[in-house]
UniProtKB/TrEMBL annotation:
InterPro entries: Flag_FlgI. Keywords: Bacterial flagellum, Cell projection, Cilium, Flagellum, Periplasm, Signal. Belongs to the FlgI family. Assembles around the rod to form the L-ring and probably protects the motor/basal body from shearing forces during rotation. One of its GO terms (biological process) is bacterial-type flagellum-dependent cell motility. This is Flagellar P-ring protein. Its main location: other. GO terms for molecular function: structural molecule activity. Residues 1-20 form the signal peptide. HAMAP family: FlgI. One of its GO terms (cellular component) is outer membrane-bounded periplasmic space.
Length: 367
């Protein structure tokens, strides 16, 4: 599977170099002031089928439920009620930029007690606050859980995470963010991956589009755009024009390795200096098979367990000493190693060793 993925990536890099070169500016930068805000709230999910919080282990659930009932005019002072169809949850959401009152946003719901599942539950009206403590949205609706569970008298099966879920369009915006975008005289473009070459190309593309110098590169991660100099008279119209301009980004050579899944992702600009590679495998196998020895029936004595261990070292075939010429691309090296039948795990070890030898000229990231 890994070989198929690597082959597909190399084919795409060779077959479509021009299409992959030009990228819209909107996909490379974040515009200053155009950002979302995180919201959080604490509420209750009701209507669960006996999978809610155990109120003895989650007393905060009983407290908030009593407070909510009293606000609704139900006096529960001194009463003891311990339903199993209620769960305390944290509710999170992201308020998008320029969200207006009355618009709806998605929310995520996560249990914080010992509830077993939120399937079939309904979130009761929950205020969502931002970092400033102000309420910007109110969430309510039916929870769509992210997993399922089934259980019997002696067994239980759980798939996914049934204690977390989402409510599509589950919150209504009640307060707007005070931000006068139309009054901006300058807008800064922040590159997601700072690079001097890419920032310079963005500056050149913007100035060429307007026919005069309306932008300047401040550093590797910032390009400043002068709205007044563009002559459009509107920051929104100017940004709408600039974000669709295309440039060819310059990126650093990088190799990303995930050891858990054996995944390798690389760029076509990675280069390897002249180096020799040799690889082999030693596998140690130890097996324990104890034997129980019992005395004859009605004979004196005790049952004795005798240990029996089998130890074996296997020298599995690897690859002999191979030389890689200078300037070779990583794609060519990986293709050659795949042709020799090198396993993905061994391929990761070889790349790590080449990097340690100083012959892999790229940023090496291991997860």
């Amino acid at each position: 599977m890994i070989r198929m993925v690597l082959t597909l990536l190399m084919f795409l890099a060779v077959a479509w170099p021009a299409a992959a070169g030009q990228v819209r500016i909107k996909d490379l930068v974040e515009f200053d002031g155009v950002r979302g805000n995180d919201l959080v709230g604490y509420g209750l999910v009701v209507g669960l089928h006996g999978t809610g919080d155990g109120l003895r282990n989650a007393p905060f659930t009983e407290e908030i439920m009593a407070n909510m009932l009293e606000r609704l005019g139900v006096n529960v002072s001194g009463e003891q009620f311990r339903p199993k169809n209620v769960a305390a949850v944290f509710v999170t959401a992201a308020l998008p930029p320029f969200a207006r009152s009355g618009s709806r946003i998605d929310v995520s719901v996560s249990a914080i007690g010992d509830a077993k599942s939120l399937m079939g539950g309904t979130l009761i009206m929950t205020p969502l606050t931002a970092a400033d403590g102000q309420i910007y949205a109110v969430g309510q609706g039916t929870v769509i859980a992210g997993g399922t569970q089934a259980e019997g008298d002696a067994a239980r099966v759980v798939t996914g995470v049934p204690t977390a879920g989402v409510i599509p369009s589950g919150a209504r915006v009640e307060r707007e963010i005070d931000f006068e975008f139309s009054q901006l005289s300058t807008v800064r473009l922040a590159l997601r991956d700072p690079d001097f070459t890419t920032a310079g190309r963005i500056e050149t593309a913007i100035n060429a589009s307007f026919g005069r110098p309306v932008s300047r590169m401040l550093d590797a991660g910032t390009v400043e755009l002068d709205i007044a100099a563009t002559g459009t008279g509107s920051p929104a119209r100017t940004i709408g024009h600039v974000e669709n301009l295309t440039v060819e980004p310059q990126r650093r050579a990088r190799v990303v390795v995930d050891q858990r899944s054996g995944t390798i992702v690389m760029g076509d600009d990675v280069r390897i200096s002249r180096v020799a590679v040799s690889q082999g495998n030693l596998t140690l196998r130890i097996e324990e098979a104890p034997i129980a020895v019992q005395p004859n029936p009605f004979a004196p004595g005790e049952t004795v367990v005798l240990p029996r261990t089998s130890a074996q070292i296997v020298d599995e075939p690897g690859i002999g000493l191979a030389e890689v010429s200078g300037g070779t691309s990583l794609a060519e090296v990986v293709a050659g190693l795949n042709a020799l039948g090198v396993a993905p795990r061994d391929l990761i070890d070889i790349l790590t060793s080449i990097k340690a030898a100083g012959a892999l000229h790229a940023e090496f990231i291991v997860h």
